[in-house]
From TrEMBL:
Residues 30-49 bind DNA. Keywords: DNA-binding, Transcription, Transcription regulation. Coiled coil: none annotated. InterPro entries: Homeodomain-like_sf, HTH_TetR, Tet_transcr_reg_TetR-rel_C_sf, TetR_C. Pfam families: TetR_C_13, TetR_N. Residues 7-67 form the HTH tetR-type domain. The lineage of its organism: Bacteria, Pseudomonadati, Bacteroidota, Sphingobacteriia, Sphingobacteriales. This is Transcriptional regulator.
Length: 197
């Protein structure tokens, strides 16, 4: 499908500003940041987006898609449910080094940034977490069905535990600037995943 010039320009704006919104947050990203990153004028930005809110929402969607695509690609390489669950550890480890998206986890960043200040971004973050939860629930249900995971486990509880450990691990290791904290927390998560038999 051939993109129009306007679609190409919108995509360009989103690609260039997504890392900025992820690092600085909604409130911390100014129109000057957007124009500096894109090399476009304010008129060009607002000719393609109604306002900063639209750019921020599109940037979040872009960052989330980048993460989801990486996770899906790695999961497709794994045979067992437990190996698929452990993909999250590997991908999220890369957030700490900035090799997936600049600035870290877009879900965590947006959830904290928009919690009380931006209802539309908060709604996007909630939808992302619920989608992540549902994906893990399906993995656990499949693991239970094929007898890889014990039926004693509540799929929703497992999903929420995995998400909480990963996001908490990112927050603690970034806040303290100690990657060793991430390693310790992820070691606990690996043990937890392996205990699901």
């Amino acid at each position: 499908m051939i993109m129009t010039k306007a679609e190409k320009t919108r995509n360009f704006i989103v690609e260039k500003t997504a890392p900025i919104f992820n690092m600085k947050g909604y409130a911390g990203t100014s129109l000057n940041d957007i124009t500096a990153a894109t090399g476009l004028t304010k008129g060009s930005i607002y000719g393609n987006f109604a306002n900063k809110d639209e750019v921020a929402l599109a940037a979040f969607d872009y960052n989330l898609k980048t993460v989801s695509s990486r996770i899906d690609a790695e999961m497709d390489k794994q045979a067992s449910i437990k190996e698929k669950l452990l993909v999250y550890i590997m991908i999220y480890q890369n957030f700490l080094s900035g090799t997936v998206t600049e600035g870290g986890c877009p879900i965590l960043n947006t959830a904290i940034d928009a919690d009380d200040t931006h209802p539309a971004l908060r709604a996007r973050a909630v939808k992302a977490v619920m989608g992540w939860k549902n994906k893990i629930i399906k993995l656990i249900e499949t693991g239970i069905a094929n007898k890889e995971i014990s039926a004693d486990h509540n799929p929703e509880q497992v999903a929420l535990t995995v998400i909480a450990i990963i996001e908490g691990g990112i927050m603690i290791s970034r806040l303290t600037a100690k990657p060793s904290h991430w390693d310790l927390i992820m070691d606990s998560l690996k043990k937890y995943v392996n205990s699901l038999s």
